């Protein structure tokens, strides 16, 4: 099928029904390579453990969305080993297994979004070394934010960082006010002179 979103950018979606036939994925990959000779990057959305395993057939994947109910951290490690060129990863799944360490390739990806960060939010913020980090359903402390800001300002960490976004669960208030955080971190107004007037936010 063909879909035209509000942005007026054409996207194409191909679906196949024979889910147990791995050859279909190979045929699809060949078909796409024939249509697009310049080998455009592919975005992969994984909704089951089976599709996670069979997805290795597809080439040129740079952006991946995990939408499983649960996702083992060992599976993430294997996926990023097989596909080291990921530019962005979005995780809607509940992460299970051993906690991810600072050296994990996941924290080095340019754009990372975790929708169920919960009590691990502060650790994810501390370990991240990419460009844009988005954490939803986040349980984050004032001290975690101050630590990120101070390290970024002092250039002791977060050298590639452009943005960190945290969002608390609905109907749950933060334990601190962001106005106080901005004041305590000596933030200054955006004047458009010392900083760019426009910033393209695309994690």
UniProtKB/TrEMBL annotation:
Superkingdom field: Eukaryota
Protein name: F-box associated domain-containing protein
Biological source species: Caenorhabditis latens
